[in-house]
Amino acid sequence: MSVPLGSRWLVTGASGMLGRELTARLSRRGVPVVPLGRADLDVTDPAAARALLARHRPAVLVNCAAWTAVDAAEAHEARALAVNGEGPGHLARACRATGTRMIQLSTDYVFAGLADRPYREDDPPAPRTAYGRTKLAGERAVLDTLPDGGYVVRTAWLYGSGGANFVSTMIRLAAAEGTVPVVDDQHGGPTWTGDLADRLLALGAAALRGTAPPGVYHAVNAGSTTWHALAREIFRRAGADPGRVRPIGSGELARPAARPPYSVLAQGRWRAAGLAPLRDWRAALAEAFPALLRASARGGTVRR
Asked: In the chain, which ranges are E strands?
């Protein structure tokens, strides 16, 4: 995968799990990148967005900034909307002024999660949570503002280095004692930030070449599993007894926001951009696991 050298990228939300991974991979490829954390840019401030884009004039902007507290969004939807919905709109308008391609990260929560087959990119969204509604608003703001240069990449069940996630939590619990209750009635595709970051790089490069049609793409590691089965696989890889993972139903967890029972996403659109979909989730987990295990043993996170 070739990223045009000299084409500056700007990554918002760069202090998060995905933003950090993406920034590191861009730097290793010699691509000029401007990483922006929350302290560097408040995406809810349209003037700040315009000023930063005008100053840096990036070829590609990847917006990883988001309100990700799913349950808290139920009680604070207006605040979540400012970040997840209005913020991408501000960035998109700034990108339109500078001719920048924009990649907006989104989520499986834009769907109801009640399907009996993988969701395609053109399936109608029907979010059931405040988080899903705010992320859908961000999608629409980007695509409406940048019909020729806006890209929405939906992902799900993300894990990696440098942030709280299910895989790291299960590695920590595997090293403890006792049983661990994990839901077995939610289905999805565990997705490694390393694979997702590589796909974002490839999409941005294809966008600059003019070979990637703008619009919606799904980027998840292929295949599907349940949280319970994933936890058992993590315990096995960590050398712990998978039998310690106890299956429970979602109804046993009292949460303000409903979790989608079915979050499997199809990846059919990548072929239109001349790119391959992400590999199987088991292969990705096998590659990511040693570094995550070492990080857990040190009691911290690992930089890749």
From this structure: 9-12, 33-36, 60-63, 101-107, 150-155, 158-159, 180-183, 187-188, 191-192, 215-218, 225-226, 245-248
Q: What distance in Å separates the CA atoms of residue 94 and residue 78, rounded to the nearest whole number?
A: 22
Q: Where are the beta strands (DSSP E) in 13-52?
A: 33-36
d(CA 301, CA 163): 7
Give yes or no: 131 in active site. yes
Query: Is the sign of the CA dihedral 39, 45, 51, 52 positive or negative?
Result: positive
At 300, list the tokens. 């911290």
Closest CA to 115 of 126, 101, 131: 126
Q: For residue 102, what are the β-bridge partners?
A: 61, 150
The verdict on pTM exceeding 0.85 is: yes
Over the Cα atoms of the chain, what is R_g? 19
Active-site residue identified among 109, 119, 131, 159: 131
Domain boundaries, the chain: 9-163+190-222+263-278
User: Considering Cα of 201, then 202, then 203, then 207, what sign does the dihedral take?
Assistant: positive
Question: Taking every pair of C-alpha atoms in the chain, what is the biggest distance, in angstroms?
Answer: 57
**How many distinct helices (H) and strands (E) make up the chain?**
10, 12
Q: What is the mean pLDDT of each successive set of 10 residues along the chain, which is 304 residues long?
A: 71 96 96 96 97 97 97 97 98 98 98 97 97 98 98 98 92 96 97 98 96 98 98 97 97 90 97 95 97 79 34
Domain 9-163+190-222+263-278 has CATH 3.40.50.720: yes
